[in-house]
Amino acid sequence: MTNSPEPEPEPAENSSGGGWPNDPAAPNPPVAPKPDAPGPPNSPPTPGGPGEPGEADLVPAAELDELRDRWRRALADLDNLRKRQTKELARERDSERARVAGAWLPVVDNLELALSHTESGTDSLIQGVKAVRDQAVDILDRLGFPRDDETGVPFDPLRHEAVTVVEDPEAEPGTVVQCLRPGYGTPGRQLRPMAAVVSKRQE
User: Fold this and answer.
1) pLDDT attached to residue 85
2) Which of 4, 53, 149, 185 has minimal CB crowding within 10 Å?
3) From the first residue on, what is the mean pLDDT of each consecutive set of 10 residues in the chain (203 residues)?
4) Are 177 and 152 in contact (CB under 8 A)?
């Protein structure tokens, strides 16, 4: 009696995807999610953690309001001081203008008086004009701008303006030999320098 061959057993199906074990073509089995870190879910961050100010760094509301109030008062005081100084400066300028103009009023009066005596003769007119000139020079001197018309002194670029140079055998080189226009003031506080003729070295 001939025995029939038994059928070979079929390989068992892979429970993970139905393919052979270690088969590259087989799909990867799903990865199980990792358990979360212990602790209650959605818990708020711990106070005082990195990047967050702690209670010791917070300024009290009352102190913050006081600082803001002091800052506003300081700004207001500064603005009031600026306005007050602007007004005082304008008053000082007006007062100085009035003082200088008042000092020149007698000069104008004397000029009118000299002009009213033009018929009396040339000499009296010349004397009157000279008197008015001297009065005007005196006013400038009292205002801090003395007249400078001195000759025979060394040339000083802080006081003099050399208009021209001449050869003068009787004067040392660099000496003011003639005043073409008087100057008024002192070095560092001048209305204008004196226009002068200066001697040069003979060639």
Assistant:
1) 92
2) 4
3) 51 47 52 52 51 61 88 93 92 85 82 74 80 88 90 94 92 93 88 93 74
4) yes
* Selection from 161, 114, 160, 159 nearest residue 133 by Cα: 114
Tokens 């506003």 found at: 72
- Rounded distance, CA 179 to CA 68, Å? 67
Fill in the amino acid letter for 44.
P
Residue type, 110: N
Element (H, E) at 18: none
* 199 CB burial (10 A radius; 0-12, 13-18, 19+): buried
All residues at 6 or more sequence positions from 173 whose CB lies less than 8 Å from its CB, including other chains: 199, 200, 201
Q: How far is CA 157 from CA 1, 36, 134, 147, 174, in A?
A: 151, 93, 26, 16, 11
Contact in structure between 131 and 111 (CB atoms under 8 Å): no
CA distances from 63 to 81, 144, 156 (A): 27, 56, 66
Q: How far apart are CA 64 and CA 87, in angstroms?
A: 35
